[in-house]
Amino acid sequence: MIIAIDGPAAAGKGTLARRIAETYGFHHLDTGLTYRATAKALLDAGLPLDDEAIAEGMARKVDLAGLDRTVLSRHEIGEAASKIAVMPSVRRALVEAQRRFAEKAPGTVLDGRDIGTVVCPGAPVKLYVTASAAVRAKRRHEEIVEAGGSANYDAIFEDVKRRDERDMGRTDSPLKPAEDAYLLDTSEMSIEAAFQTAKSIIDAALSRNA
Ligand code: DC
């Protein structure tokens, strides 16, 4: 059983994916971390972010078992990741690794931008989790403030919109819902309600497969 979850930055798909994986005892991969780990390795080695052959080489070395969310969540790593995520050969390398992960038993949850459209187009459950840019910026702002940090809402809002443009505007694997994806707009929905909706979709798919 493969559960594909896509959507823009800060829509709540990571939280939802982790909760689903825990509930069903499935393996979870946040595929954004694979792009982030590649970008971080380039930054750490002092290598350029605009050389596709070098970036592909790094992408092929990424260890999916060693992805550290805390380190990789840094803002500048996200920015660098979205630059190398436009490179077709980097995407090919990471998609190969993601597909191998997706086959793990008893099931997997992958979240990202192109899981339902490119990585696992045959996944029996596809969710497209979204929310308005204003709501996503507000949630990200609250998260930072609650963690004791300081942040400027307007800057975050601009950042969310810029990231959307880059993710939706690229030629290779742009962010968009798969035709057979279930759309979950969380703008006015709690994470709990989103989870309950997802759960009923997954339970229906599991009983079809049984
Ligand atoms: O979800 P995130 O912020 O960790 O993603 C980091 C970058 O990687 C983001 O700009 C989009 C890109 N990405 C992608 O192109 N395809 C994926 N499946 C996951 C992330």
Question: How does this model look, in words?
Answer:
By secondary structure, the chain is an alpha/beta fold. It folds into two domains: 1-26 and 107-204, Rossmann fold (3-Layer(aba) Sandwich), CATH 3.40.50; 31-105, no CATH class. Helix content is 57%, strand content 11%. A five-stranded parallel beta sheet has the order 2-3-1-4-5, sandwiched between helices. α1 crosses α10 (191-209), α3 packs parallel to α6 (88-102) and α8 crosses α9 (153-169). The structure holds 2'-deoxycytidine-5'-monophosphate (DC).
Which ions, cofactors or small ligands are bound in this entry? 2'-deoxycytidine-5'-monophosphate
Give the H and E element order: EHEHHHHHEHEHHEH
Low-confidence stretches: none
Shape: globular
CATH classification class of the largest domain: Alpha Beta
Helix content: 55-70%
Q: What percent strand?
A: 5-15%
Q: What is the first-to-last residue Cα distance?
A: 11 Å
Main location: cytoplasm
Family: Belongs to the cytidylate kinase family. Type 1 subfamily.
Catalytic activity: dCMP + ATP = dCDP + ADP; CMP + ATP = CDP + ADP
Protein name: Cytidylate kinase
